[in-house]
Amino acid sequence: MIVLLAAKIFLSGLFLKAESSPAISLALAEDARKTRVSQGEGVAPERPSLQSLKERELALHTREEEIRKKEEELVPLKKDIEEKLGELNELQMRLTSYAKALAEREEAMKDTKMAHLVELYTAMEPGKAAAIMEKLKMETVVLILRHMKGKSAGAIISLMKPEMGAQVVEKLSQMK
Q1: How are the residues of the chain apportioned to helix, strand and coil, as percentages rounded to the nearest 5?
Q2: Is the pTM of this model over 0.70?
Q3: What is the dihedral of CA 72, 73, 77, 82, to 10 degrees?
Q4: CA distances in angstroms from 105 to 95, 101, 134, listed in the order given
Q5: Fewer CB atoms inside 10 Å of the end CB: C or N, the chain?
Q6: pLDDT tens across 42-80, in order?
Q7: DSSP sequence for 9-53
Q8: Domain boundaries of the chain, sorted by first residue
Q9: 156 near 142, Cβ under 8 Å?
């Protein structure tokens, strides 16, 4: 504790000795002035010099010119991008119409196949058609009978096993 007290006295002595020096007094006064300026007291803020304003203006003009050049370089790129977007939109429209045509063709082929199956089962004797349909998947049987005329479909259903006939009628009634 005595050592700390001695150190404090020693440092205080150095501080007092340093304040008596004219250079240190000037530095302390300058520091105090800066503190007052930063706090907005007394001293008016310094105005930028004419030279520094001209330098800033020149830098701004240089930067403005660089920006203008960059904008001029971007114009052809923008046109190129717009052309590519137009090409992409056209391609997308062509692909969409092609996909639609393909789906329509597939649907037409499906309808043609179904029409052929309907003709085939209508031409058969109802007992034979019923025996074959009992071995098919329920969805297939329902699709075929759905496209048949009522009289032909009724004759085939009447010759199916009662459980199978009931299921077919149930599925047909649920279809829209």
Answers
A1: 85, 0, 15
A2: no
A3: -10
A4: 15, 6, 31
A5: C
A6: 444 556 788 888 899 999 999 999 999 999 999 999 999
A7: HHHHHHHHHHHTSHHHHHHHHHHHHHHHHHTT-SSPPPPPPHHHH
A8: 51-105, 124-176
A9: no
